[in-house]
């Protein structure tokens, strides 16, 4: 038998339970990962002690009522070990709606508890006295196989999320799905629509964070699961591109993701890479080497927003990924690369996003299969960005602020101050030399002397310039490309 290295804290919890006369096993993913020589993501202990009894033994614990699990605090910082989940043996009762039931029925034996688990490799229990492995889990670990416990069809009808877990674990562990388990997924994919989007999102996110995310994504496609997660990506299957690409849109998106994974980039970059061309199929015009995808980044941005909201990603992540997709073609929007153009570009995409956008850009380039050298124009843009990086691109970066304007001109708080500030910024964006106290005060005085109507007109011109692309065009495009 393998020499398991159980962390002291976990061993101590088991010992406390055993000394109180209860059984205690390490079980599930942690045993699987130990057998594989991987670091477990979390530790689970199964016991015949009831939740109240567990709590009594571990005063420093949290009881999560809905799942019958007591989380014991170890006081460790390591996030995989800070809480150890101690769960009473249980079987699951009714499965009428294809979901893991909320009602928990306690069981008497570890054998019963193992029988409700999803895959053989996740149904191995360990304690110092010995291993309980009723379904050949150790064997499957050796063979690198994901196999359902018992009848796969029944397992997926009980809880449809297990199908997605199978794909996620396959990618995470570099395993294969055993044939009858795979067939049962193919047969039951549509049951995934009964599963809450949060559970789906969590597994999908784990999949995207594995080193074989691209391969996992292909498996989601092959099994049919993808249509219940991000069906929009399927629109790109078989859609050819133009002379700059050798891959279909689907293949290209996948390869862009693979590049981001290879680089070890975080979730948002991975999702941005995966979705960056999601708008292409809907915007494709013409065919063959000369086809075009005009405005696909705008359509893609809108689609990404919907996808991220549907999957209930936290707003901050959703916004960031949407922004990356929306602006991934940034270079073409710069027009001529003047300093003023670069300042306006930075204002539009946000200087803080430039690094991430360049990462998406790189993933796009490498994922195209015919990577051109890092284009000269892009290098020039970087040089220009560096050159203008200290220049003002928002009103907070102007050399005078609203209060100073009010004092200098004897103005009361009101919209006029805001109008003046935004006209000043607009002019500084065009010419950064205008950003000195003296020049700004002088210009502010001129603006103050104008009639309200004139000033509003100037201010509106600045605002329009900022929003012309964002609004008018987007309304039109929404209608045209079915993103309502
Ligand atoms: P990870 O490495 O991400 O922690 P895991 O397999 O340990 O993967 P957990 O969510 O931590 O996943 O679940 C712990 C254990 O609980 C699993 O190994 C499995 O035995 C059982 N389990 C989890 N989800 C299900 C499910 N949907 N159906 C049946 N058993 C499940
Ligand atoms: Mg786990």
UniProtKB/TrEMBL annotation:
GO molecular-function term, one example from the UniProt record: metal ion binding
Listed cofactors: Mg(2+)
CDD domains: HDc, NT_ClassII-CCAase
Record's keyword annotation contains DNA repair: no
InterPro entries recorded: Bact_CCA-adding_enz_type3_sf, HD/PDEase_dom, HD_domain, HDIG_dom, NT_sf, PolA_pol_head_dom, PolyA_RNA-bd
GO biological process: tRNA processing
Keyword Transmembrane: no
Domain HD stretches: 249-363
UniProt keyword annotations, A-Z: Magnesium, Metal-binding, Nucleotide-binding, Nucleotidyltransferase, RNA-binding, Transferase, tRNA processing
Assigned protein family: Belongs to the tRNA nucleotidyltransferase/poly(A) polymerase family.
UniProt name for this protein: HD domain-containing protein
